[in-house]
Amino acid sequence: VKDGFDSFMDKEIHDQPKAVADTLLGRTDATGALVLDELRIPESTLRSIDKIIVIACGTAAYSGHVAKYAIEHWCRIPVEVELAHEFRYRDPILTARTLVVAISQSGETMDTLMAVRHAREQGASVLAIVNTNGSTIPRESDAVLYTHAGPEVAVASTKAFLAQITACYLLGLYLAQLRGTKFADELREILHELQALPDKIQHVLDGEAAVREVAQAMKDEPSFLFLGRHVGYPVALEGALKLKEIAYIHAEGFAAGELKHGPIALVDEGQPVFVIAPSPRGRDQLHHKVVSNIQEVRARGARTLVIAEEGDEAVAPYADIVFRVPQTPTLLSPLVAVVPLQIFASELAKAKGLDVDQPRNLAKSVTVE
Ligand code: F6R
User: Which residue range or ranges hold the SIS domain (predicted)?
Assistant: First the structure.
């Protein structure tokens, strides 16, 4: 079942090119336009949406963070992302023009299910993005967009996360197509880039030995920090969560811009800091700002582990270690940038002799509130 891998988590990390490819499969027609037949929400409703609220927990919520950047950019619809258990116990402002997107691998997470009920009671339409066929959340939602990651066994989510992000991109591109906020050829270009992602993920996996070697050497570190901006921020949060979950190491993810507002006080001689560097080919100041952040922590003694694009030489002088990922448009880059962090956590947990697939105190699906 583990296909020769040491753990289900390792197997599932290696399943990721297929998880993304399968989630994209069959969702375009002969002209290259997106067809999401399963969205049984009427097109007129989808056209009139004036707000999207993503509700989810844990890793699934981080996929929602990525969705916010992409959907707002492509569709010009405001997107809020909220932990389902927080949403559930407040008085959210929902109307018939609000689309609530509930993201869940298992489809059984009680916190998310309760939030779905809460949203529907107040008249919002709920679209579920779920991996498990026939589970409860899709049954209680207005429509479902399935991720096709296949069954995920390891408690720590990996391939489901990449499939969730992929499904969010499809939703965003579909809404942009429907609402005409992007030209058809632009949409086709982004879709084309997205279709190149499975091979790029495979390329990162092919280079995993270097990541594993560093993880083994760092197995006794007591704490790690993770920094990112824009879509690199949810990647940082996810990298930290993986390390906490399976390696039981204190790890915190920050928006890199927050550093000087507090967290930089944590940085001391030898503190390992992962930094997710955005593409230097992006149009804005993003890359430049992140390079400054790397310099800032390095100047205070941090050991910097930088995830950077191939060909990005600007990070090299400030990075103790660089993990390379293929060149990818910024909005799509989480699909490659998170992979070295998953491998790192898995290898580090293994080096500590821990059960990678069954971390203490955690269950695969959290069916109690
Ligand atoms: C992290 C992890 C959890 C789940 C969360 C939501 O590796 O597995 O944070 O992502 O419990 O679970 P689902 O997606 O099943 O609703």
Answer: 41-181, 214-359
